[in-house]
Amino acid sequence: MAWKRRALHLSTGSSSNSNSNQLLFGRHGTSISARGKAPAFSTFPNAPPYLLPPWPPRNQPRARRCQPLFFLPCPRCCFSSPSLLPELARSLAAARPAVVSIGLLVTADRTRGGDRSMRMEGGGGGGGGAGVGGCLGLGQGGEAQIKGTHTHGGRYVQYNVYGNLFEVSAKYVPPIRPVGRGAFGIICAAVNAQTREEVAIKKIGNAFDNQIDAKRTLREIKLLRHMNHDNVISLKDIIRPPRRENFNDVYIVYELMDTDLHHLLRSNQPLTDDHCQYFVYQLLRGLKYVHSANVLHRDLRPSNLLLNAKCDLKIGDFGLARTTTETDFMMEYVVTRWYRAPELLLNCSEYTQAIDMWSVGCILGEMVTREPLFPGKDYVHQLRLITELVGSPDDTSLGFLRSDNARRYVRSLPQYPKQHFGARFPTMSSGAMDLLERMLVFDPSKRITVDEALCHPYLASLHEINDEPVCPAPFSFDFEHPSLTEEDIKELIWRESLKFNPDPIH
């Protein structure tokens, strides 16, 4: 990695509870030195050092340490995640079918031979859409083997992943391991035989059934191919369909992450202020890059923030992104309601990068409370929850509303004074609280910007302006003209696949 990261040591807790399967940190059980150097392999139970949130500020002695981010695995199973609690692990080890529902439903069946079949469904906002939110970590050993059948002269391999047809290039070698599923399709992990890199392959089935979803898929592909940043998920490949004329499924290949922030916050994993500081810094660092490309993400939420055991954070799911100058927005598709800025709730016709900053504030607050800040049941309830915390806006704070009807509506709502953040967030550090107050401002013109947030004292130990790059060129959405049909989108996605896999065979 080009940017700084400091290492802290993994604390294993009580040695009496230690065993070789208890802690499974990441996919390999390795320690990795700073700056992404070669891993030093280690075996459990002797816990190696891991890269964890940076502490203390540079050039100062390491006075304290963060609690480690660790995953509790299913023993002898290819899945591990913060959402797999010890109770689940114990029940699986005892060969009993188990069900857990913490943002993700996992059911496991075990035969006498130790084989497992597992089914996963997104839930509680964990994943969905065109992104890779909801991906789980992969454990060691005992991986479920799914056999494949070679097709198209051996250039592709076809798998049956729990009833789902999964056909990928032969360079992605077995075993194919399912790690997530949502409304969009299924995600499997595999290894690229050419690069030896472990990747996440997402299948979007029937991708061209409707124009909205097809555009969303194309938009994310083009955006991620344009971007190159440590804190934005990397697009590795678009698997070229076997035939140009007749394909309905799209396979997108990403770098593999261990989990997402949604599942982490729903787990019993302890998070310190140092974790929150590090996650927020990385989110803002990535968002600065995105905004500099003239792009609004518009769907920032915990399930779209992907994590690994080293506490690296990457922004995913750009399917709803738009240019900062675009005015023709589909309001019903913008931002999950709980993370939606007031100007969106009030149908403001013009909005800015400030909508993403509101979402960051909601995420920061949720990291501390482990619960959504504004879990509104509908638009009216959402506005009420917001004003109960940040206070009802006065007339000077409604200048962003062009509609007289909208201003009258806001004035007609019950009036609430601003709540003292210290009372609402008693465990939050003063620095984090001040930053949160500057993010959760009703008037978008008075809301802190991403550049200002990176300069905030709360992030002083991490902020380094020369190590927070911007995008070299703005992104253009020119391909999204109104007359674009599903067949047009299919052709554009085919062309995108050729950029990764030239010399097509028709």
From TrEMBL:
It comes from the Eukaryota. Residues 1-21 are annotated as: Disordered. InterPro entries: Kinase-like_dom_sf (IPR011009), MAPK (IPR050117), Prot_kinase_dom (IPR000719), Protein_kinase_ATP_BS (IPR017441), Tyr_kinase_AS (IPR008266), Tyr_kinase_cat_dom (IPR020635). Residues 173-459 form the Protein kinase domain. ATP binds at residue 203. GO terms for molecular function: ATP binding; protein serine/threonine kinase activity; protein tyrosine kinase activity. Keywords: ATP-binding, Kinase, Nucleotide-binding, Serine/threonine-protein kinase, Transferase. The keyword Nucleotide-binding applies. CDD domains: STKc_TEY_MAPK. Transmembrane segments: none annotated. Belongs to the protein kinase superfamily. CMGC Ser/Thr protein kinase family. MAP kinase subfamily. This is Protein kinase domain-containing protein. It comes from Panicum hallii var. hallii.
